Amino acid sequence: MHRKSSFLVAAVLVTSTAFVPAAARADATDIKLTATLDRLAPDRVVVLTLTAKSASGVTDVTASLHYPTTAGAAYDTVRFTRVAGTDHDGTWQAEYHTDIVRHPRANYVNAQVKTADGATASTWVNFNDCYETSITDLVTEPSVIDADHSDVTVHGRLMVQKSREATPEPVPDAHINGDGGAFTTQAGPDGSFTFTSQGRFPVTASYVADGQNCATGQVTGVTVAKQATELSARLTTPQPVATGTDVTVQGTLLRHGAAGLVPAPGVQLTAVVGSGTTVENVPLGPTAADGTFTSHFAADRTGPLTVVASGDPFLEDARTAAGTLDVRRASVINDLKLTPNPGRYGQALSISGRLGSLPGALAIEGAPLVAEFSPNGKTGWAAAGSGKTTSNGLFRLTTGAAKQDGYWRVRYPGSSAYMALTSNPVYVDVRYGTSIAGFNASPEPVAKGKTITVKGQLFRYLDKKLPGPGASVYLYFQSKGSGTWTQVAVVKTASSGWFSKTFKASKDGTWMAAYKGSSVYLASNKPTDYVDVR
To answer: Which of 161, 335, 401, 481 is most buried as measured by Cβ atoms within 10 A of its Cβ?
Structure first.
């Protein structure tokens, strides 16, 4: 994998600025401090310049010098003199002769600004006191490289110049960094060095500040003959997808090398989604050793997908269409209910709920929905009702006649904005209906102590109305003025569905009959009849 490198190049003229807000009580504002040092000047004087504004007026500006950090003890102090403006808006300056032997490289200046209101504000800056270094006699072999021939031998010499009038001198035994610190070599007594760069561009040589010497660095004159590439890519995740879905892009990057088409490993890829001014760049990572890639990212916008291979210094950039993303908001069905459950044979079911979109389950208005039925909940789904959502996403679908146990679900086909959705299936147990007809307690009125006959007929509803034989019917009595039903008998129906039971009349009250149902039949109605006992 080829990588770029960077390094620090020192300048002859150093100018630094810093600004720290004034203390809470001080009225000094817009404080700025700079340090300017001509490192090739023989006198090595740093010029400190401070500008500030103050409503009450600046009364004094001083600075302490610290080494080797801002926390170090002050080794000297200087006083500033106003050279322009007024005490309310002016410029103050001080000069200081540096000591590169005792305090080489970074020195810190902490300035104190006093104002007429009795407060003090502070700010700081640093200057770099060092001798200028340079890399000379830089030669590279070869001068042109490519992906197949990327090794470069670099020769050079590290020199130092202490003043503008002085002749540059070699820096003996210095540590030279190749390619931004990728590796280090040591210079000889005359400052000369040699190293070999492998598979990198740009090819650089640099020196880190050391002792009294400044840092320096240089980009060599090596150039690259870039090789053409061939990029293929395709979106493998079926579309459409919900927002945030992890989608996969696969492909291969090849380069036209000396031996023909060969893999291009370690090249960074980017997915560009959209077109025009509304695009999104998504990092995909590098190609593998064989030039292939399988990359994943979360989809959040619709549009054409383009894969770009770029940034490799040895290869030409490449781009190719990989498909089109169709990203829609996820949909959700909440509060799904099927009634009645158990259902009654031959009668419709009611399916209700609410359709919304994620996040937040915002209502989807006017959406078409289909109710579907399957005996086993896995296969054979068939439409059995339809409808649309209201403005608040609510829906109520009425199915066709339910004639067998099975599973029901609601399907939303989706739209250009929302993902299709099928609800979880709900099992409905369908049973045959029953009813009691001809219920009567007689005679009425009846004399106390006489016999009362309670009777009726149980029917069951399959595809037609039939008697209900051999079923248990429960008889209840509630005396006048009472709120409690008391079970008084259980009788079996005859083959005709009729049932009958006699009781001794004792008090006024109401008689009731009920069939409680089974795994095949629903419970019946509960007819009543009042009898006056005299």
So the answer is: 161
